[in-house]
Specification:
Layout lengths: L16 E2 L18 E2 L7 H12 L12 H11 L9 H23 L7 E6 L5 H14 L4 E5 L2 H9 L7 E4 H12 L10 H20 L5 E6 L10 H6 L1 E11 L14 H4 L2 E4 L1 E2 L4 H10 L5 E2 L10 E2 L6 H17 L7 E5 L15 E2 L2 E4 L7 H12 L4 E5 L8 E9 L9 H8 L2 E9 L2 H6 L3
Parallel strand pairs: 1-2, 3-7, 3-8, 4-5, 4-6, 6-7, 9-10, 11-17, 12-15, 12-16, 14-15, 16-17
Antiparallel strand pairs: 13-14
Length: about 450
Amino acid sequence: MGLRKKNSFPGIFGHLVVYPNGTHVGSLPASEDPSIIVNRRDMDKLQERIESAFRAWDRPGRPRGSQFTRRKLEYIEAILCDNCRFVISAAAGIDSDETTISELTEQQFSFFQGVLHNPRLLVRGVAGSGKTLMAQLSADMFARRGQRVLLLCYNKLLAASLQAQEEELPYDVASFHAFCFKLCRQAGIECQVPPGDAGNFWREDAPNLMNEAIDELGDACKYDAILVDEGQDFMHDWWMPVQLLLHEAGTLCIFHDPDQTLYDAEQAFPADVAQSGLNLDENCRNTKRIASYCGKVIDKSVKSFERSPEGIAPTRLDSCPDAAKRADQVRRRVAKLLDEGFTPSQIAVLSPWGPGNARCAMDHLDSIHSRKLIAPAGGDSVADLGSKLAEWRADGGIWTGTVKSFKGLEAACIVLTDLPEPGPAYFTFRDLYVASSRAQHLLFLIPSDEKAHAALSK
């Protein structure tokens, strides 16, 4: 049955003009039938007026209503309907929340600039208080004043992330150990991780070698300002070379959160810095519900900015002791996020365990929803990590990695899988706090057993 001309339509058709908030004044034109005009007074009997309009459009002597059979109705429905569905996009709401969070962080830095005149400053901030961003903004501000600036951190992936955000930064960025190797190369000092006791090398030998390199290089390696992010993870002996890197009148600003200490570093800062402190006690990264959960994890109250979005409470999925089945949970969850409009660069899947560990679900996945998985490897250089981060941020795949390696970074949606019951051993409540606070807007928790499921219900 073709409907190439409207006159071939097998039923009554016509138009009805509705003025829901008005009415006509005076007489209608002779060409207008009152039965096809509805005004405000007729709105309570709209069905009756629609039916009278159909009768008005039916042609005398050639009734069309009787031609509109059930079979023809189904045909018309097939033309007007298809399988397209319009669903609420969670990603659209996240975009709005992201704009609000960015505004709040900028407001916080405006306040923070007022205290940067202090040449020694220790900044304590809760997770999500904008410490890393303020360290970047501070470094940029000092650099624009013509000063030579160094931004140091602990995590190699965080250093790669900071370097990759701009093609050419006006200041230097490095992890502590990467900078140690750099100075030793410049000074011609051998610096290699020995087989066996690598831990002792990172804790003690590396800073000692860095001291030697600074003595050898002299003023050529000195800075006017040094910003240290993740200061809680710096060992006591590391502060000596950091201070030696400064010109005599240089500025040292340390950002730290004692609740994010994951490597048993001593909480001991240079005396002149520790005497000048500032607290950032409001979260501006996470939604209020995620920030609240993070606080409950460590039995502390975490305040959110008043204008922070309320967001959605963290989702705790069913426990699953089998890593392969947890991989299926991850696959379904991430696929659902992609279907809802999130991009790969907004999603990260994190586990306490790395590749090769029997408890790691990600060993059972090579892609999700036709998207490749991007993961750091133990031997990756900072340049390698920067390339992988750039690929992720360009929506080239889904980021996967360990909780510890992702510390200092963030994503709109975080899926935490393989979670054991937090305890005093490898995965503590502090680890859970750090991991959960990576999620800006959506957080999903996949426990490995019932004990973990119960412990995650904060």
